[in-house]
Each structure stands twice: as structure tokens, then as C-alpha cells.
Amino acid sequence: MTTHIKGDGLPSSDDVNLQWGMERSALRNEQMIGDKVECNACPVLCQISDGRVGACDRYANRKGILIRIDPVVVLRQGSTCASEISDLSERGSLSVSVEDKQPSDSQGMFVTGIGSSTTYPDYKPAPFIVASQSRGVDMVTVVTEGIFSYCSLKVKIDTDRYLGPEQAAVRCNGEVVGHVTTAEYGSQMLSLGGVHHLTGGTKKEGRVTMNMMQDLCNLHPVEVSIDGGANVVLQAGQPPIVNGITEQRMRVGCGSAAIGIFAQQWLGLCDEVVVVDDHITGVLSEHQAGRCLNMQPSGIRIKGRKSTPGRYFQVANPGTGWGGTDIQDPLAILDPWDSAVAWSGLRLLMTSTTGEHSAWYVLDDQLQPQIAEMPASVRRVVDRIGENCEPSMVSVLFLGGAGGSLRAGVTDNPVQLTHAIKRALVNVTCGGAPSYVWPGGGITIMVDVMRMPPGSFGTVPTPAIVAPIEFTMRLSDYETLGGHMGYVRSLDNSLKYGAWHNDGAPKQIRWVAPPASDSPWPLDNPPMLG
Ligand code: SF4
Description:
- The longest helix has 15 residues, at 203-217.
- By secondary structure, the protein is α+β, with helices and mostly antiparallel strands.
- Helix content is 14%, strand content 32%.
- It has 3 domains: 3-149 and 396-529, no CATH class; 159-250, no CATH class; 255-387, no CATH class.
- Iron/sulfur cluster (SF4) binds at residues 39, 41-42, 44-46, 54-56, 58-59, 460-461.
């Protein structure tokens, strides 16, 4: 029988030589019977044969040593290189100098949680607790790879096309993975993933949900279908594809807003303008904007429910036609004109909120609208509606709960971390990207995946999502909140030796430029620095 080691990839605190930069003691190894290495970085507890990887593809057994496969991602300011990998020292060669492997200016570097490793639940200090300076202040960043069972995606789809009824199930590969939530201004919204779909249904539902979330977070396309609605291809940063048609424009505003914006430009060119919209259809002559311009009543009658003058709800059913309604012929929303008011020759413009649909009519002697060629002067205003539409895009925000055991990797008194974050003493980032921390209890964060380095997310088959998270604060605050001060290392040391678990593998660092140039640098959070 061969004796092999069992290792979680992290040394116990007793074993760690906390004088980083000196030769470290061996990893905590436990004797185990069998020919595999057991990974206990998550509760799946994979037993991995030599040369094989674990169920999450993140850890592997290399010659009896558990290793984290992916490089640690380090942001480098001012880099022109999108991604570059450095191999650092090998096991047993910790004296290899790293100076020639890293940029000379260490100030512009930030170690992210991507590829950093962790345990789950977190029962050991985070793999990187990095000391640095910002504006002359001693800082520390606690870096870890969070495993999120409680997490979801908020997906914003810039379109006024009808995707499905509110609360309708959203399916991926036939499994329910979320639902349609409240529409926002110019956008349809989906809530996807979440703990109930990850863990509360069948195994297949959990697996499909997890893979869908990982793909969307890593900027890959995902096709979903909405019960009673549309098929949509979603990809962060790309236009949505609704029932096979790539969406182009996000509407300039609702029908009423469009009337307000363009009323003056239509004055004198049209006798009436109707901006067809699933939510609020606008009618120029009745609208306050038309009244202010002394427009003459036209005698038009609109189907639907009048809200306020010139603003109508429910003119048609929602759909993928004009202005997010189901109509293809805009005249379908008109009742017969008021013959006491309307006149032969009246000029009528009907347009959608994006200007993609538009038509020009002239009333005949029977007060019937007859299609006619749109004058160039009117066309120019319609084109301007299109010009004022922003490109339609899918945005994906990752929402995760970091208020659980993950905090134990930061401090031995977790509620202190929660309080410090609420007091803006701690800047929470994900892969270096700024996060929004929700008010109230816990640490519920939300981050735009487009601001994170590509490939930031992984999975474990519990099932859960793996996402990077970093907590940056003053070193003095870290000490106050009960931080693991004995584990603080310099940036140089962190880059040289990598995370603790990496002792048995080539240490690789992937240098990347911050994906969004307008994101604040994680170490420069003004409230935190006061
Ligand atoms: S799924 Fe991954 S992290 Fe979990 S035990 Fe297996 S190899 Fe380790």
C-alpha cells in the first residue's frame, strides 16, 4: 500500500512560518489511506488521483500535492497588456528572486481573489492578506475566493419589446432558473439564479442554474425562454437577441417623454403626433407639451385608458411590435376621429419610441387616415429619435451574500467586519471591481460583471458559484476589527510565494489591466481614507 498525503491546500496557523519571506514550514499533511489526495476546499471533498482534477476543475493532484490550477489574477494599472502570465518560483525554490518577474512599480498592483483559493466554509485566514500603502496610509487587503450559495443575477435588457409577463418563469435547457421581475425605464429585467434554484429544486435544476450563472458572469451567451413570452439570447455587454432578432435601440423614453422631448421640433410640421408605447402612449395635441405650443385639438381618439391629458395606458397588448405592443398596424389603436373637430387634410405622424417604426398619414374627406410619403422635415425628427436612443445592451449584475463564514477568513470577530463595511471603513471589491453593498444586515454585495476581469467566476458542485472578493481597509482598522494580523504579508511576498496552497505548484500570476478604465482603483476609496 502506498501512503499518500491529505491536504486542504492551506497550512494550519500553527504550521505557518509567519515571518513571510523566510523559508516556510511544510504544509499541514495528514496521513490517509488510499492513493488519492483529498481536497477539502469545499464540502464535496473530492479525492483526486495523481494527474487528475477535482469536480470543479479548480484543484488538481500534482504528484501527491493538492494545487490550485488557475493563476492568481493581479490587476496592474497602466498596463497595455490585456493579459500576461508570469511563472514564479517552483516548490523547493522559494529563494528564487521575483524582482525580475514583476514590475518595478508595485504601487499600481492589486491582488484579486481570482484564482486565490479558499476553504468553504472559511475556517482559516484568507489566502492573501496583503499590506500596501495608499496616499501614505498603511493599508491591508484581505483577498479570497468566495463560494456563494446565496447569490443571484439581476439582468437588465435594454428593450421595450415584451419578453414575458411579470413573475413568469425563465427557463434554461428546460429548467426554471429565475423569473421576470419589474420592468424599468426602457429595460426589461430578469432575476436569475438564487439559492432556491441552486439548492431547493432537483439536482438538474441546481446544475443548470449554476452553469447558466457562471456563463453569464463570465460574459458568455446564454439562451433562455420565458413562459408565455420570448426566447432571448443574453450576453453581458452585447445586444439581446429576442426571438432571433438582434435588438438595436433602447427607447428614448416612454411615449409621453418622447412627446415632451420633440414637441417643439414637430411644431408646424404635423397636426398630430402619436408616439406608440406599451406603457404610456403620447398624443401631442392633448399633451401638456402641445398645449404649451398652442396646438389645435385634432379630434383624435385613442383606444386604451386615459391617464392624464395626452397620456394613455394599455392601448394594446404587450408584444414585439410597435413600441413594445403587439400591433403591426398603428392605426389599430385609433377609434374614429371626432368629426366635429378633425378636418380633411390633417397631417398625422405615428412613431414608436425608438423611431424604428413610423408612418405618415393624411386624413381624407371621410376623415380616414391615408398613408402618404413622409416629408423629409418630419423624417429628420423621426431620425433624431433614433439618434437619441442608446444602443440596446444586456447588463448582468452579480448579487452575493458575503455575510457568512467567508468573514472568518478576514477576522476572528466577523460582525466587526460587517459593521466596518457599513461604516464605509472597508472597500469591498470583486476582482478589483467596485461593489455596491446593500443597506441593512449582512454583507450583500452587487457588482457589474463587465467591470471584472474575464473569467472571474467558477463553480463548485455543491452547487455554488465561486467569485472573487477583496476587503481593503486601513491596517489600523484591520487590527481593531480583530483581523488576522499575524498573516499580513507584503505585496512582494504575496507575489513571490502566492497563496499558501500553491506550495506544490508553479506559481502563476496573470497580470491584467483593469477591465474598466473608469472604475476607481480599489486602494483609492475616498471615504475609507477620509
Ligand atoms: S469540488 Fe473543487 S473545491 Fe470542492 S472538493 Fe472538489 S476539487 Fe476541491
